[in-house]
# Entry
Amino acid sequence: MKTRSEPNRRRVQGRPRKRFGQHFLEPAWVAKVIDAIATAPGDTFLEIGPGRGALTAALGPRVRQVVAVEIDRDLAVALPGRVGPNVRVVTGDLLDVDLDALVRDEPLPIRVAGNLPYNVSSPILFRLLQAADQGRRFRDATLMLQQEVAERLAAAPGTAGYGALAIQVRLLADIDRLLTLPPGAFRPPPKVTSTLVRLRFHPPAADVGDSAAFERVVRGLFQQRRKTLLNALRPVAAGFGCSAEEALDRARLDPTRRPETLTVEDMARLTRAVL
Ligand code: SAM
# Structure
């Protein structure tokens, strides 16, 4: 009997598309990831990037409903044949889809899972943080990330990885690192090690006054993380029409500190002080 050669098999499944960050989870790792997600029969999941359905096919039988959003039309079309009837496949870009419409008929809060495309993992994270609605729409998100990004999310103030991403995440979610996966856990293997993390969404950990202003302050300060707080704040404060000295005084912050040592609460106080 003729066996199907590797190139033929690849053609039948379609070549992995680099531009969509496609690295498919190997079967040997599926159970470990599913265990880490810790499903319950009543759960509803939004899955980001189901791909060929490695996680989707395992999630479906364990939960009430899966809504799976896949950008690659070819994969999305093939998916219903690989998964059960309680999986609704939506073709689209997670960064563009109307999330309200997507989950309108689902009991909230729902849970999120995804082996994320690493090229757009940060924008997807920001989208989820905004859309989680303090845990009312999304309860939690179990996400596969590049290890380095996972470390930045969980970094403590004053350490090298600490930055805008860690602050934004900490404001709206708690984060746990669940699993570390070597490049060989995926096909084709990525160049990097991966980490599965869980974000548990919650109401803001601090009163930031205005979330757009908070983002401007955080980003502005981290662009100059090694300067003193006073010097880093000058251009940011000017943008709000106030003086950096006065804002620091109002926020009771030492002007000689470095921006990279500020906690979420410090950043929130500083934002309220420039408003
Ligand atoms: N979940 C599958 C697995 O574990 O084998 C595939 C994971 S692969 C790393 C990322 C998946 O996300 C791919 O199927 C890719 O086409 C899809 N994807 C990439 N960008 C996307 C986006 N913006 N919105 C939705 N899906 C996306």
User: Anything to note?
Assistant: The chain has two domains: 6-201, 211-274. The two ends are 74 Å apart (CA to CA). Residues 44 and 65 are 5 Å apart (CA to CA).
